[in-house]
C-alpha cells in the first residue's frame, strides 16, 4: 500500500485528477462527504486529504510515503524529503510587495510582515539588508496598510489580492509550483511503485 498525502482544496483536486489519469485512481474520493481517507485496495493506493502546509510533515515523518506540497512550504520548512517532480500546477510566485508610496531607506531596518520568515530572512540576508520579521498567519496584506510593516513577503498568484488592497509587487523572490515529494525510507523500500507513480504523473505534466 502506498500512502499519498494530498493538499486539501482546489490544488489537491487538480492533482488527484493527475493521479487518476495516470491510472492511480480511487473512485470513492469523488463521493461527497467529509471523509479524509480513501483507498483502492486493488491498485494498492491510499489517499488522504491534509492541510496543504502539513503535507511535508506527513511525508517527512513517514505517515505518508509520498505527497504533493508547494515549493513555498519546501523552501520555508526544508523538510528532509526527496523532491521527485515539478507538477507545474499551483503556479504562483513569492514576492515582495508594498504600498505604491513605499521607498526603501537602506539606513533603516526594514519591517517585513510574512508567513514565510525563513524565505524572507534568506532573501534579505543575500542582499545584506537589515530586517525585522513580523510573523503573521494570514491577511498579510493588512500589515503595510495599517503601518505594521514596510513590506510583505507573500504568495502572489493572480495579483488580485494585492491590487484590491492597493499594494504593488516590487520584486519576485522565486517562482512557486506544486512538487511531488517522497519519504526517504519509503523511496528505498517502495521504490518501484513510487517510481511508477512519478512516471505516470510526469506524463500528465503540461509543459509550459
Ligand atoms: C494567498 C496569499 C495571498 C493570495 C494571493 O493566500 O497569502 O493572500 O493567496 O492570491 P492572488 O494573487 O490570486 O490574489 P491564500 O488564499 O493561500 O490564503 P491564506 O492567507 O490563508 O494563506
From TrEMBL:
Main location, first listed in the record: cytoplasm
Pfam families to which the protein is assigned, alphabetical: HisG
Superkingdom assignment: Bacteria
Gene Ontology MF annotations: ATP binding; ATP phosphoribosyltransferase activity
Domain spans labelled ATP phosphoribosyltransferase catalytic: 51-202
The enzyme's E.C. designation: 2.4.2.17
Example of a GO cellular component annotation carried by this entry: cytoplasm
Catalytic reaction(s) noted: 1-(5-phospho-beta-D-ribosyl)-ATP + diphosphate = 5-phospho-alpha-D-ribose 1-diphosphate + ATP
Keywords: Amino-acid biosynthesis, ATP-binding, Cytoplasm, Glycosyltransferase, Histidine biosynthesis, Nucleotide-binding, Transferase
Entries under InterPro entries matching the protein: ATP_PRibTrfase_cat, ATP_PRibTrfase_CS, ATP_PRibTrfase_HisG, ATP_PRibTrfase_HisG_short
Pathways involved: Amino-acid biosynthesis; L-histidine biosynthesis; L-histidine from 5-phospho-alpha-D-ribose 1-diphosphate: step 1/9
Subcellular location(s) per record: Cytoplasm
CDD domains: PBP2_HisGs (cd13595)
Biological process, per Gene Ontology: L-histidine biosynthetic process
Subunit structure: Heteromultimer composed of HisG and HisZ subunits.
Family of the protein in this entry: Belongs to the ATP phosphoribosyltransferase family. Short subfamily.
The record's note on its domains: Lacks the C-terminal regulatory region which is replaced by HisZ.
Reported function: Catalyzes the condensation of ATP and 5-phosphoribose 1-diphosphate to form N'-(5'-phosphoribosyl)-ATP (PR-ATP). Has a crucial role in the pathway because the rate of histidine biosynthesis seems to be controlled primarily by regulation of HisG enzymatic activity.
Protein name: ATP phosphoribosyltransferase
This protein's encoding gene: hisG
